[in-house]
Amino acid sequence: MKAFVGANIIDVKTDSVLPDQVIVTEGPSIVQIAANDQSSTINIQNMDEVYDVSGLTVIPGLIDCHDHLASKNYELMSRWNLDEPASTNSIRTYKVLEDTLQSGYTTIRDAGGLDVGYKLAIEEGLFEGPRLVLAISIMSQTGGIGDRVSGSGHTNTLVTNPMLPNAVVDGEDEILHKLRELVRCGADVIKIATTGGASSRKGLGPRDTSFSSSEVRLIIDESARLNKKVMCHALGGPGLRVCIEEGVHSIEHGCHLEEDPDLVKIMADKNIFLVPTFTVYDYHKSHSAPHVQVRAQQLIDQHRRSFELAMKHNVKIVAGTDAGGFIHGDNAHELELLVLNGMTAMEALKAGTITAAECLEMDHCVGSIEEGKAADLVFLEGDPLKDISLLRDRNNLKHVIKDGKNIPLSKRMI
Ligand SMILES: [Zn+2]
After folding, report:
1. CA dist., res. 29 & res. 411, Å (int)
2. Total domains in the fold of the chain
């Protein structure tokens, strides 16, 4: 057993701070939490390891509900894995996973592009990485965002990974086949796209629609039969309406929600989560291809208004970066942007812990510091409720614990 003595727990379930606490872990779990005073029944002498963490703040391991851990940048050569040997690329991904965990992110939902091998290797203990929830590949119809074609109309047939199947599907038979194939490849969640996006090719904009309502219905029904939820990339226009009305589990981006204000009410009624991903648009507005910069700039203000509207109607909002075309390991930037766009620090912290755990249907085991839950703990200097940006600075992170294991915090390699 290990005891962590003296930290101030941020309790995201009661929106409070519990000062000077003792947390006892046994194996991968938290077994006891008590105030560090005479009333405590915890006998420190019985512990195998004791950590003096007095004065530090402890938060639950952080959760990013939308990442692309295997993506390195937006260049076509990189997207098609043609720019370096597969082995180099794989080691680079391994470093991203290791570094992301060291940044305090103990659970990540990967929204496409990461094959199940990394998850199996982490579970086997070959290296330390976050707990993973995988979408494997993005399902879209021909011409949708999952259909990656070059400017000349060519598709990539040079590098294929059978564990990352091409998920371009048209019509019922193809949808059923692909969905079952994705589950065979280890998909924990089904990712679809019903609109274009900021980074998609010219002609496939954020309000251009993709799957029809009957196709979305079929995907949701078959996913439910296979005990999977559907996360849906949708920015605006009829494609956004279709997936909300049909009742997907989470909306990724949702930037133009405010153009159809009734949609946030439907989201609240149906308990559909919103994953705004402010980080990616912050990046696109200054770093991407010219047509992408223009799109991102146009949608940023509207995105904020959509977010405010969703908050007003009590839509459950969770943190997701959509990282992968740019920096990795700075996932806490999203929490800072959630605050800049109108959340309190506690609300943002919940969006990156307990509400995110609910979105992943893992709130029984992660997302808050409670007896019986996984010992996923981040000890840091300073109070993120006063300044959420503290979480972005690695110098403030003193211990990252995942499943009760102390993760060595090494120098950043990426
Ligand atoms: Zn994404």
Report:
1. 27
2. 2
Q: Are residues 42 and 72 in the same domain?
A: no
Q: Ligand 1: distance of its center to the CA of 67 in Å? A: 6
Give yes or no: residues 171 and 38 share one domain. no
Q: How far is the CA of 1 from the centre of ligand 1 (A)?
A: 39
Q: Which domain covers residue 31, as residue numbers?
A: 2-60+368-407
Instruction: Give me ligand 1 centre to Cα 203, in Å.
Output: 19
CA of 19 to the centre of ligand 1 (A): 38
66 and 47 within one domain: no
391 with 245, same domain: the answer is no
- Å from CA of 306 to ligand 1 middle: 18
DSSP alpha helix (H) spans, 185-236:
213-225
Task: Say if residues 331 and 390 touch (Cβ distance below 8 Å).
Answer: no
Do 198 and 52 fall within a single domain? no
CA angle (363 as vertex; 357, 365 as ends), nearest 5:
115
User: Measured between alpha carbons, how far is 104 from 32 in angstroms, rounded to an integer?
Assistant: 22
pTM of the complete model? 0.96
Residue 123 within a domain = yes
Token pair 């509900």 in the structure block, residue: 65
pLDDT in tens, 243-284: 999 999 999 999 999 999 999 999 999 999 999 999 988 888
**Alpha-carbon distances, residue 57 vs 7, 8, 24, 29 (angstroms):** 5, 5, 16, 19
Centre of ligand 1 from the C-alpha of residue 21, in Å? 38
147 CA → ligand 1 middle, Å: 14
The answer to whether residues 273 and 390 belong to one domain is no
**Tens-digit pLDDT profile for residues 274-321:** 999 999 888 888 777 778 788 777 788 899 999 999 999 999 999 999
Residue 49 CA to ligand 1 centre (angstroms): 41
Is 66 within 8 Å of 281 (Cβ atoms)? no
User: Ligand 1 centre and the CA of 32: distance in Å?
Assistant: 38
| Token pair 């998909």: residue | 187
